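Dear colleagues,

For the upcoming journal club I promised to circulate an example of a predicted protein-ligand complex. I picked one with uridine-diphosphate-N-acetylglucosamine because it came up in last month's discussion. The inputs are reproduced below in full, followed by the predicted structure.
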Amino acid sequence: MDAFIIKGGRELQGTVRVHGSKNASLPLMAAALLTDQAVTLHDVPDLSDIRNMTRLLGTLGCETDRCDTDPGRPITIHATDQTQTAAPYDIVKTMRAGICVLGPLLAKRGKARVSMPGGCAIGDRPVDLHLHGLRALGAEISLDAGDIVATAPGGRLVGGHVFLGGPSGSTVLGTANVLCAAVLAKGQTVIESAACEPEIEDLADLLTQMGAKIQGAGSPRLVIDGVDELSGADHRVIPDRIEAGTYVCAAAITHSNIRLDNFPTDALGAALDRLNAIGVEVAPVTTDGQPVDRHRGSVTVNTADTLKPVQVFTQPHPGFPTDLQAQIMSLLCLADGNSSITEKIFPDRFLHVAELLRMGANLTRNGPSVVVTGVRELIGAPVMASDLRASAGLVLAGLAAKGTTTINRVYHLDRGYERMEITLQALGADIQRVKEENL
Ligand code: UD1
């Protein structure tokens, strides 16, 4: 296993191009199961989750081709064999997003067998809303030996009316699954309390390009008129708002000025609001009277000398994303006063707290909230990455800390950040990837 060794305290400078979104790419790739024609996606990041999705689609009769010499690194997925309907446990267990194939398989092939995803470090993560939504479209669903077994009676789903809200709001991948199922269902489907995340809008964009009839994408009410078949498409994935937000925090925590290209300003409204209140200015780069591109533009990040404390509540989009909670916690560890962070999506997503304490942070957890009392400095220490975004938070803490931080188990980080250490090295950070056994 790999580890990162970070010698903190370096100022960063330079430019980072934000990669395409991981969380958008995974359901987009699964949507290729909905057609017999090829679907080409540009700007899919090179990550272990993406490679696992490619493997999964391979077992489901898809041929995949990636061209790494083209700057957009297009990946073409062609479902040439529509007979396979079982997604094997050994691949689905590696990433929750494996569940994304359930809706497309059921819609296109009339049946699906997909391993029930287990819990993970950030919580239980049920899929009851996914199943509730698919049942509303006529699917018959049972559980067999840990697998979800779903069938569309007569081979085709029928449109229905479904409410997808749960205790913590809507469900992102659940909305993706039901949307993908509805586009080929007979008749109209209405999804109430649909997820409004930009990744769902991106999925609706691809499906529309494939011939689907969808209204309301990006709002909590989706109206879908089913069609008989879908065609191939050529689509560019949206920039990764979480990677973008992480690099803003990297600049802020090291008091550096950097530039970010392919930056999705509009998708980061709540995060930029909190960062602004902390004293982090993210300003668009304008060129010769051109309008500012708020979807894939360029920005500079400038940080005040003193970071101000703030309150943060994670919420479904357009609220503050839970996937940036660990990163902003690291930043607030160095603010001048008491901040509070309340997790409204995954109330147990705080495994990074214990690791930050090892670095000298002053944190008090009370159920789904953490009071962050700013300290003058963080101190390097050996810490353990527990999940993807917690790992990113620890890297940020390491960049700012005095001395050396060793982060073990960075395979978590590799699931969601393409070669993060190379990006940070290019900005001037002292960060090395090493084998844990060599430590
Ligand atoms: C997606 C993202 C993940 C992000 C999360 C919340 C991907 C690959 N992953 O995960 O990075 O942290 O959105 O923004 O896109 N819930 C239920 N029943 C369900 C499904 C979910 O109660 O059937 C609950 C969850 O426990 C959680 C909340 O709903 O409290 C939101 O989860 P959900 O939006 O489904 O997360 P994912 O789509 O799995």
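Two points we might discuss: Residues 23, 26, 96-97, 123, 125-130, 166-168, 171-174, 199, 322-323, 345-346 surround uridine-diphosphate-N-acetylglucosamine (CB under 6 Å). The longest strand covers residues 257-263.

See you all on Thursday,
B. R.
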